[in-house]
Amino acid sequence: MACDNLQAFIKYPIRTLGCRLIFCCTGFAIVLVNFERRIIKRGDIVVLFPDTSFVLIQVSQKFWVYQIELSAEMTVDVTFQLSSLFFDKIYDNPILPTTPQHRELLEMWRKQIEWIEECGNPKAIHLFVRNQFQNLFIVMEREVLSTPVVSLIKPVSSTRQLFNRFCQLLSENFYSQHEVKFYADKLCITPYYLSRITFKMFQSSPKEMIDRQIIMEMKHILTTTDLSIKEIANQFHFETSSYMGRYFRRHTGMSPTEYRNQ
Questions:
Q1: 127 and 222 share a domain?
Q2: Rounded (5°) CA angle 108-112-118
Q3: Residue 12 belongs to what domain range?
């Protein structure tokens, strides 16, 4: 369980192959969650799965978090009993507030995890940690599904459902699929109707959202890996590295190499 201020992630997407849990200890941050502007504050828990789009925009001076990342295998192991409704709600709202009582219990839970990690038997550690996270997710599911009161729940509009589905498809396919038509076809709607949805929900065209996601990920790869420009172009399914360079320059005003050197 690592303590961090997440400064290195500002304006870069935070991704996970399994599940990443972020516990806000102090301060606050402004983020984009599935392309919606939100605030994380002290006591909040952020639950990120692979299909969640999460970008830090700004953090306060005293912003500190604990974060834990579970592997894909461990994530499946500890969440397989959870309901699909829980995952739907977490996708729409992955930032969970806590009460003082919750925070006291979470601190006890965190200390138990640290104590378990000091055990010398790898098999026992895996078993204990799995059980601890399974218990945590069961409690989170209970809290998420019990609030708000059922009578106050508003039905999700078809526009919101389509927008959420578009965001999910984008997070899963943006490396290889850069055209609006692909996403519109997957949603069984026309590109024009998809553009009406994205303008209504996010004041951007679908193409702008696709390009924004690609450029954010490219910037992250350029600054955190030693992959060559050709390797990055292949990863994003560009025909040539020069074509990717022109695409990157059009959106940032500089070449990929200039951005990496900067």
A1: no
A2: 150
A3: 2-151
Number of domains in the chain: 2
**Per-residue pLDDT tens digits of the chain, which is 262 residues long:** 667 788 888 888 888 888 999 999 999 999 988 878 899 999 999 999 887 888 888 889 889 998 888 888 888 888 877 887 888 888 888 999 999 888 888 888 888 887 887 776 777 777 888 888 988 999 999 888 886 544 434 455 778 788 878 888 888 899 999 999 999 999 999 999 999 988 887 778 999 989 988 998 898 889 888 899 999 999 999 999 999 999 999 999 999 999 998 8
Residues in CB range of 252: below 8 A, 6 or more apart: 215, 219, 259
Q: Identify the CA nearest to 200 among candidates 247, 161, 150, 143.
A: 161
Contact between 115 and 1 under an 8 Å Cβ cutoff? The reply is no
Verify that 72 and 202 share a domain, yes or no: no
CATH of the domain at 194: 1.10.10.60
Q: What is the CATH number of the domain that holds 101?
A: 2.60.120.280
